[in-house]
Please model this.
Amino acid sequence: MVASDQEPDGEQSGPVSERSNWLRAGVLGANDGLVSTAGLVVGVAGATSSASAMFTAGLAGLVAGSLSMAGGEYVSVSSQRDAEQAALEIEQEKLETRPRQELEELAKGYEERGIPPELALEVASELMKTDALRAHAEIELKIDPDELTKPWHAAAASFLAFAIGAAIPTLAILTPLDDLRVVVCVVAVLIGLTLTGLSSARLGNASIRPAIIRNVAVGALTMSLTWIVGRLTGGLVS
Model:
C-alpha cells in the first residue's frame, strides 16, 4: 500500500477503520459458523446415515450458535458503550469544574497534532465556546458522542454472519445424492473457508495463501476429528 493511502500516523481514519472492523467481524463470524456447524453435521454423519439427523444437528447448531454469538456480542458492546458513556460523563464534569485546565489539555492535544501553540490555543478556545464536550471527546477519548457503539446493531450483525456461515453445511447436507452427501458438505465448507480466508487476508492486508491454508486446515481438521468421534460413539448409542 502506498503512503498516500494511509493517515499520517499510519492508522486508518475513524470511519474507514470502523467499517473495516465491522467487515472483519462479519467474516470471522461467518467462518465460525462454517467450522462449528460443519463439525456438528459431519460428526453426526460419522454416526448415522440419516439425512434428517444431520440436518437437525446443523439447524440446531445454526440457531444455537447464532444466538450465542449475538448474545455475547450484545453483552460485550453494551459494556463498551457503558464505558464510553461513563468517560463522557467524567469529561463533562471536568469541563464544569476545571474549565481552564481542560482548555490547556485541549490545546495541548492540538499541539501534538502539529498545530503551533498559539493557533492551537485559539482553536481550543473557540471549540470550548461551541461544543467543548465533543472537542474533548474526539481529541482525548477518541469518541464521537453521536456515534457510540450500538449493542443491538452488533448483535444483529453477529447473528447474521454466523447464520450465513452455518447455513452452508446445513443446506449442503440435504443433497439428494445419498452416497455423496458428506462429500458435498465437506467440499462446500472448504470452498466457504477458502472465501473467508481470502476475505480476512485482504481486510487485514496479510498474505493470502497462508491465511487460506490455515483456514482450510483448521476446518478440515475439525471435520475429520468430529467424524471420527461420530464413528466411535455411533455404535455405542445405536
